[in-house]
Amino acid sequence: MKWGIVLTVDGVPGRADEFIAESARYMEQLGFSSFWAPDHAMFFDRIDSRYPHSEDGKFGWLEDQGLMEPIMVCQLAAAATKEIRVGTSVEVITLRNPVVRSKHVVTVDHFSGGRFDYGVGIGWMKEEYDACGVPWERRGDRGDEYIKVMKALWTQDRASFHGDFFNFDDVVAFPKPVQKPHPPVLVGGVTPAAIRRAARHGDGWYGWKMTLEEIDESLVLLRHELDQAGRSLNDGFRLVNGIPHHGDPVELADYLRGIEARGITEFNFGLALSRRSWRGQIEKYARVLIG
Q1: How far is CA 254 from CA 189, 207, 212, in A?
Q2: Residues 30-77: tens digit of each pLDDT
Q3: Which end of the chain has fewer beta carbons closer than 10 Å to its terminal beta carbon, N or C?
Q4: Residue 131, CA atoms < 13 Å, CB-side half-sphere
Q5: Which fold has domain 1-45+53-89+245-291?
Q6: Taking the domains of the chain in order of start, what are their residue ranges?
Q7: Considering only CA atoms, which of 201, 203, 198 is closest in space to residue 219?
């Protein structure tokens, strides 16, 4: 099993650039496999959209909550390390222009020496879409197309694409990625539509905060959708899962054994680390998970 940490970097004093570099180096030293940055472009005092990962549909972030730009966080973490992979967990792909974002991804892929994993989703917060001027309608179609646009730019010598949202011919987009054919695109989400998107357009599926029973149901659907797309889990398709966690990792022993039994080989913990005692918090997880 490969273990990773999703790190909330909000830019408050003590939790910005030095914190990113030092925590990434420490994770690497302790044997973690990956460092992940979450994404939201913005938050609101009132959010009417239903959050899919809580029973009451409430988001539960702090007042004046912020998040630093995930690609830039990954870049800084990569620059401070040598082996640990870095990735987005997960980026709301539909809020960015995919032509421009494809260059950002290539840049961090180069600067990391091919250690970048591009976790993407379409989000759940309509308020965020409205503020960014992106239509909420057809967001699933938009997400599918954005992945295809980026892959065209990453893999074609002279890239051309014709879709519902983007049209271009003979685009000269260099450099191409270090990872071939491109950085892994891990599609996040727990809905049937997200799982279908992962099977059709992703290099892996990234589930979040799921019970073992929910994972079982999702894996049945994922295998079906992969088969419909002429693919299978044996084609190098990655299974990533994760949860937010703020207690003792020992209490998760049965759950994590169940995760491994289901063939999930990468698991991430979303941690809210203290500015003063974050090393001890990470060590606690390393002792239990890595030994």
Answers
A1: 23, 18, 10
A2: 999 999 999 999 999 999 999 888 888 888 777 888 899 999 999 999
A3: C
A4: 10
A5: Alpha/beta knot (3.40.1280)
A6: 1-45+53-89+245-291
A7: 198
Confidence of residue 246 (pLDDT cuts 50, 70, 90): confident
Identity of the residue numbered 213: E
Q: Which two tokens stand for residue 77?
A: 């973490």
263, 234 in Cβ contact below 8 A?
no
Joined together, the tokens standing for residue 210 give 């799921």
Q: Is the previous residue joined to 38 through a cis bond, with omega within 30 degrees of 0?
A: no
51 CB burial (10 A radius; 0-12, 13-18, 19+)? middle
Nearest to 78 by CA among 33, 107, 113, 104: 113
Backbone angles phi, psi at 60, to 5 degrees: 80, 20
Does the pTM surpass 0.70? The reply is yes
Gap between the Cα atoms of 114 and 180, Å rounded: 9
Under the phi-then-psi rule, with left for phi > 0, alpha for psi from -120 to 50, and beta for the rest, what region is 162? beta
Q: Note the pLDDT of residue 58.
A: 86
